[in-house]
Automatic annotation (TrEMBL):
Organism taxonomic ancestry: Bacteria, Bacillati, Actinomycetota, Actinomycetes, Micrococcales
InterPro entries, alphabetized: Class_I_gatase-like, ThuA-like
Record-given protein name: ThuA domain-containing protein
Residue ranges constituting the ThuA-like domain according to the UniProt record: 19-218
Protein source organism: Actinotalea lenta
């Protein structure tokens, strides 16, 4: 199967001072290459345009909380991602993607949850073991040992119902989802949100890379089944 992926690595407002999105995007591209996926990385905001000419969209973006020259506005983002979903194509969203596109309300509905400033948080970055749960993605995986941030108190989009995690962690006695999979839209577009991946130390972990490979495997079962538009 000839599958193409676009990895969006921030750019313009879609970056922030805390994440090296180009470096983590490159780490993701290496895992994609191991799966035989043709991958293009981009930090050009204009690449978030309709139609997205790719089988798999990987969102490794954030939010700089302000307009930036050359950026793409929220309605354009919503239209591009909405068309991708309507075509039944899969999406992988990573770590700070929960902060991305706050001016595009459709994005949180695709993801299933969002980061809320003043409520969402993470304990200090450090070494941790996070628990994998039974699912079609993680049935053969061990728990993940990783140096990373562990997001807490993400706000679910309430009318979509609770997300069903395949990875979780505990912080101060409360369990928080760290990764989940869902299908979106009438065409059943597959979506995975994986909150790990703060920096390249995350991708140095063999168990973290195994989790990412398993998530990609589930997404790629549907990638390539819908012809891409060629211009």
């Amino acid at each position: 199967m000839d599958v193409h992926a676009l990895v969006l690595c921030g750019g313009g407002r879609r970056s922030d001072p805390w994440h090296d999105l180009a470096a983590t995007g490159h780490a993701v591209a290496l895992v994609l290459a191991e799966q035989g996926v043709h991958t293009r990385l981009s930090s050009r905001p204009a690449d978030v345009m309709a139609p997205l000419d790719t089988d798999l969209l990987v969102v490794n973006c954030s939010d700089g909380e302000g307009p930036t020259e050359g950026d793409v506005d929220g309605p354009t983002v919503d239209a591009a991602i909405g068309a991708h979903v309507a075509a039944g194509r899969p999406i992988l969203a990573l770590h700070s993607a929960a902060l991305a596109f706050p001016d595009a309300p459709g994005w949180a509905r695709v993801l299933g949850a969002r980061w809320v400033h003043g409520r969402s948080m993470h304990p200090e970055l450090g070494r941790a073991t996070v628990r994998t749960l039974p699912s079609p993605i993680t049935d053969t995986l061990a728990d993940v040992e990783v140096t990373d941030e562990r997001y807490c108190f993400l706000e679910p989009v309430t009318d979509l119902g609770a997300v069903v995690p395949h990875v979780e962690h505990r912080h101060e006695g409360v369990t928080h989802p760290l990764a989940w999979a869902r299908t979106v839209g009438p065409a059943g577009s597959r979506v995975v949100y994986d909150a790990l991946g703060h920096d390249v130390r995350s991708y140095a972990s063999p168990t973290r890379r195994a989790l990412l490979a398993a998530e990609l495997g589930w997404l790629l079962e549907s990638a390539g089944s819908v012809p891409r538009r060629r211009t």
